[in-house]
Specification:
Layout (H helix, E strand, L loop, with lengths): L3 H23 L5 H4 L2 H26 L4 H6 L6 H7 L10 H26 L7 H35 L4 H6 L4 H12 L1 H39 L9 H6 L2 H12 L9 H21 L16 H33 L9
Helix pairs in contact: 3-13, 3-14, 5-10, 6-7, 6-12, 7-9, 7-10, 9-10, 10-13, 10-14
Length: about 350
């Protein structure tokens, strides 16, 4: 007698294989009829409606200067020097920023090696997948973070030398300078323009962190909860590199989160939504220009419940982003309670 789980897996694989064959035969994505229907209309409303909501959140909490809520809740957001320091300062005083730099360099090297091996083994078709977009984004995040950490350490060393000119040589050796002293010294010696550029890139880096974290949670959760149990057929083979691409990115991001002092405001889910929306629009453009395979079956508009699939994936952005935001908040609460003297939150 065939075990139940084997029979279920065989039946599920057969069903999705049949669906795949039907999509290949019946779905001509270059024809006008494929797009001019109610399914595409509903999916477009879902995608572009999400982009409109994301744009409104960015306008209210990032751009507008006239909102009272904005002034009350994010008045420290306009202090550019905090963005600069958050990009390369660890969350615990005893951890030297060089350790964060070392972690980012190691993460970048390992992830870049895994991505290169995956592309060499499979080909550039991997970049049709949202997973590869996310994986590349994580690699860029650690590369960018390594540069900011290295530059922050260089500035810290330079500011230490500037401050040591005004104090006794023995004090400079045995008494560490506070970060506030370093910032004051830099503003006096180098001027406000020196801080403005790294602070802006620190702001961009924080947005990149929040967008990357949400996208990584989405790709890994969909892969392990949907694709592995139900879609692991010939079109979705399990391999070491595939498993690595859907696990190592989250592992390194959690390690990064444990070390850094970056914030995770709720309204920056907007950039995460934009990333996914651009990916969907990219696939629409590609399939409108050429008849090719869909990286994920639920993106195919010829499926009977395509609008429902789009809605479900759109709603998945909420738990994926806010579960990670909850982890960040738990980290800060634990540090504040267990290490009140060592813990540092820059705002």
């Amino acid at each position: 007698m065939i075990p139940f789980h084997i029979a279920f897996h065989t039946l599920t694989s057969s069903i999705f294989a049949i669906v795949r064959i039907r999509m290949v035969i019946l779905s001509d994505t270059t024809s006008l009829d494929y797009w001019m229907n109610w399914k595409f209309l509903l999916c477009s409303i879902c995608v572009f409606g999400s982009m409109v909501i994301a744009s409104l959140l960015i306008w209210i909490y990032e751009v507008s200067h006239n909102s009272i809520t904005y002034k009350e809740t994010t008045r420290l957001e306009r202090d550019w020097s905090l963005y600069d320091r958050e990009a390369w300062m660890p969350c615990v005083k005893e951890i030297h920023p060089a350790w964060l730099l070392a972690f980012r360099i190691i993460a970048f090297c390992l992830l870049f090696s895994a991505c290169t091996a995956d592309v060499v083994a499979v080909g550039t078709d991997l970049f049709y997948y949202y997973t590869q977009w996310t994986f590349t984004l994580v690699i860029f995040y650690f590369a960018f973070g390594s540069l900011l950490s290295a530059y922050g350490l260089f500035r810290q060393h330079k500011m230490f030398n500037v401050c040591s000119l005004d104090v006794d040589a023995q004090q400079a050796i045995y008494e560490p300078l506070h970060h506030e002293d370093l910032e004051n010294a830099s503003s006096q010696q180098l001027g406000g323009c020196f801080l403005q550029s790294p602070a802006f890139w620190g702001y961009v880096f924080q947005i990149l962190f929040q967008m990357t974290a949400g996208a990584t949670m989405l790709t890994d959760s969909v892969y392990w909860l949907v694709i592995v149990p139900f879609l692991t057929i010939n079109e979705y083979p399990m391999s070491f590199l595939t498993v690595l691409a859907h696990s190592s990115n989250l592992v390194f991001l959690l390690g990064e989160t444990a070390l850094n002092s970056l914030r995770f405001p709720w309204f920056r889910i907007s950039y995460f939504i934009f990333l996914t929306a651009f990916y969907v629009i990219f696939n629409w453009i590609v399939h409108a220009c050429a008849e090719t395979w869909w990286p994920y079956p639920f993106l195919d508009l010829s499926m009977e419940y395509a609008p429902l699939w789009y809605l479900v994936v759109a709603l998945l952005h909420l738990p994926c982003y806010y579960i990670f935001a909850l982890l960040v908040e738990i980290k800060y609460r634990v540090l504040a309670r267990w290490f009140p003297e060592s813990y540092q939150r820059l705002r």
